[in-house]
Structures are given as C-alpha cells and as structure tokens.
Amino acid sequence: MVKVLELANKEVLHKVSELYKQVWKSEEHSIKERILKHSLYEGFQGFVILSNEDKLIGFSYGYTSLPGQYYHELLAKEFYSEQYNKWLKDCFEFVELAVNPSFRKQGFGNMLITKLLEEVDNKTAILTTQIDNKPARSLYESLQWKVLKEPFYQNNSKQPYVIMGKELM
C-alpha cells in the first residue's frame, strides 16, 4: 500500500530534494526553489508517492506552458508555426519525474505520470529527456508519448535531449 499526496509541504519538499540529488547524482539545491516558483504557475500539479513507512518512492510535477515562461520560449524556438500551434498553444509542461532507484520497474513512474495528467485540461503535454535515457523514453513511449524533435540541445548544451509530446484530448 502506498500514499499518493500532492506535492505541498516543507517536509515533502525536503524528501523530494534528497531524492532528486540521488536520482540525478546532483548537488543542485534549487529543486525546492524551482518547485516553489513553479507551484505559482497556472495549472500547477505535483504528486509524490510515499511508502507505508513514509519513504519517498517518487514524485512528478508540471504546469500549463505559457508564452513568457523560460522553457516554453526555449521549446517554441524548436518548432515551426504549425508544430507550435499543435503542441504548445494549449499545453501542459511535464517538468519532472523521479523514482527512487530501489522502487523502479514496479509501475510507480507510470502511476505518477497517469495521476499527473488525469485532471489536466490542456490538449497536449510536452516533456524533454536525455536522448540516451532509455528507461525514461521506454516508459513514455509505452504511455503513447511520441518523439517530436531529436536531438534538441538546451542553451548550447552538449547533452542531447529529445522533445516528446502526447495528445490529451
């Protein structure tokens, strides 16, 4: 038995920050600040899954993608007008998904994605992931996400990404 909760309080945010560092092998401390900033965006939704022992299994969050937002503008540069109208005009931006390595391949990533998107009113959803992140890409493709652009380089980064989209309506 697990608990699915909204991504909301300081204790949960601390657990999310620790998991983020573990999953991404990062010392980045800004995930808390990014979540707090993004929680003010239109359409924000975020969820965590906790075990019965209150151990963080995973989290996901996103929001409505709107002109003027950093990532919206970054992605808009990658699309022709027709693609922009289809994928970014009425779009939910799926920002983060992380599952504790000891809980992977048990359906929790699928559960977090499904929960996050089930009440979204947007026509499409969009995400980016590293081109070589085969487990993530496999998960998204199994949920009918499709590749929109590959490769995609964020701000002259040498790390190639893929832009994926999903029609919601």
UniProtKB/TrEMBL annotation:
Give the residues annotated as coiled coil.
none
- What GO molecular function annotation could you give as one example from this UniProt entry? acyltransferase activity, transferring groups other than amino-acyl groups
Q: Give the species.
A: Oceanobacillus zhaokaii
Keywords (alphabetical) are: Transferase
Protein's recorded name:
N-acetyltransferase
Q: By its UniProt entry, which Pfam families does this protein fall under?
A: Acetyltransf_1
**Entry-linked Gene3D superfamilies:** 3.40.630.30
Residue limits of the N-acetyltransferase domain? 3-169
